[in-house]
Amino acid sequence: MPASRAARPTIRFVDEYCQLFEGLFPEVRSFEAFKLLHLGMISEIKRKSLPAIAKAVGLDNQQNLHHFLSESPWQVQQLRQKRLELTLKVLNGRSLILLIDETGDCKKGKSTDYVKRQYIGNVGKKENGIVAVTAYGLVDGMILPLSFEVYKPRERLKAGEAYQSKPQIAAAMIRGLQAIGFQFELVLADSLYGESKVNFVNVLEELKLPYILAIRSNHALWLPQDQEVYQEPWQPFERTFSNGTTEVRYMTSRICWHCLCYAIHGFDGDRFSCFSPAGDWNLPGYPKSR
Fold it and tell me: What is the pTM of this model?
């Protein structure tokens, strides 16, 4: 039997990265499509659809890429596992700050699985689309993608599927990442997770993970009887946005019972709070006897 031909090269750093996954693809055409998808995803095209990627990487049409995603004999779970193993190897025992968030894509119609009209964070409003819960790691100023799971709205579930809320999905991802060796020094998430005591906060406390989670300004916390709350004076700070603009906002902290709360206020009236487990807080003016 003649030896299998080598996969056609793309650009050096894409080829070197994809080479780490070559053993997962039994067909050379599948491995070539895998490399071309990476090439297309880092290209400057605005819409990363299969036809647009095919055109950008020099293919006549998108059929090869479509076959790779729908029919080619490779397993996505094996690919995810290999990528996480490589990430752990690069970390070499270092811990991460874990960032839990969601991302979404607008979709027309309802033919795509799990599409419904829902809040799309990167659009900033409700639209027809699909949403995924994401987990990223921050280390040495680098953001490392770790995991994601598509959120499945209750009314779009398939037969045999069980509903999971976004906090439940995030909690399961954290358990899974810890199980294969990832270490987290801190967990960050927005108010959707910060206000989910049973499905998310309790899981972090069970796993003994420090966290800072946003809560809305009107979110209430029950305190033990006669519990006192200590609040520091409001302090100005400069908030820098992703587009490079800045705005002066104000921050304070409140210490009560087992949590430290931060309140942040902007001129637009936006106000939110964050909290984390109590510890040996080294804060100016914080009464150590509390």
Answer: 0.80
